[in-house]
Amino acid sequence: MKRILTIAIALCSVPLSIFAQNNEPICTVANTSFRAGESITLNIYYNVIGLYVNAGTANFKTTAEILEGKTVYHVVGTGWSNSKYDWIFKVRDRYESYFDAKDMLPYKFVRNVNEGKYKKSQVAYFYHNDEKVETESSKTFKINKCTQDVISALYNVRSLDFNSYKTGDKIPFDMYLDEEVYHMYIRYLGKEKITTQYGTFNAIKFKPLLLKGTVFKGGEKMTAWVSDDANHIPLRIESPLSVGSIKVDMMSYSGLRYPLSSLIEKD
């Protein structure tokens, strides 16, 4: 149950691509999928002995604000362990992204991690014209002009036209997290029906490349599905972990920009 929000956000935001199929960066992604006032909640299930346990919850809320004279979307991702298991390992995490309302590029990223005895707070500022990120501690990291943070990544991917890709296509992307820039890709796998804890949906399917670490196994081990409608909200993510496996299901939503027309039947 450790690092619940970190895992959930990674699972939900891995499918970012703001690159065309010729690998040329597209730095002016227009929002076509969400609006201020949207809220999405997901349940996180952990499996270590053949039985999935409800280990925690993640929520993403979107508002419109003004940051240094610019109109931005402010997305707050919060995650917490199931209260039944707080005595084993208590998690209360919060991630925030401020990204431009027009081109969807991030200006500011905030990460506050509170997991058992481990606590970490980070703030990063993006300067895309200068191709750099600066932290509150004055560290500087080189990026390309299209680099996203882990939250803005999720909201960029939701405005992609998946119909422009062929099954099997690799789509590369760059993402900044925890003072590193990761060069990754997703493999588009087409469309299919999927049944989740919430209901049965028409969905878009893909596999992201994962870097091997202490939590995830490397390679194309994870599978993710988003709604096959104009909202493109995350529906389910499944992945093996170094110990056990994890499943994340969308369980509730409000304030969607469009009707959730991909829903075939609600459980």
UniProtKB/TrEMBL annotation:
<protein>
    <submittedName>
        <fullName>DUF3108 domain-containing protein</fullName>
    </submittedName>
</protein>
<feature type="signal peptide">
    <location>
        <begin position="1"/>
        <end position="20"/>
    </location>
</feature>
<keyword id="KW-0732">Signal</keyword>
<dbReference type="InterPro" id="IPR021457">
    <property type="entry name" value="DUF3108"/>
</dbReference>
<dbReference type="Pfam" id="PF11306">
    <property type="entry name" value="DUF3108"/>
</dbReference>
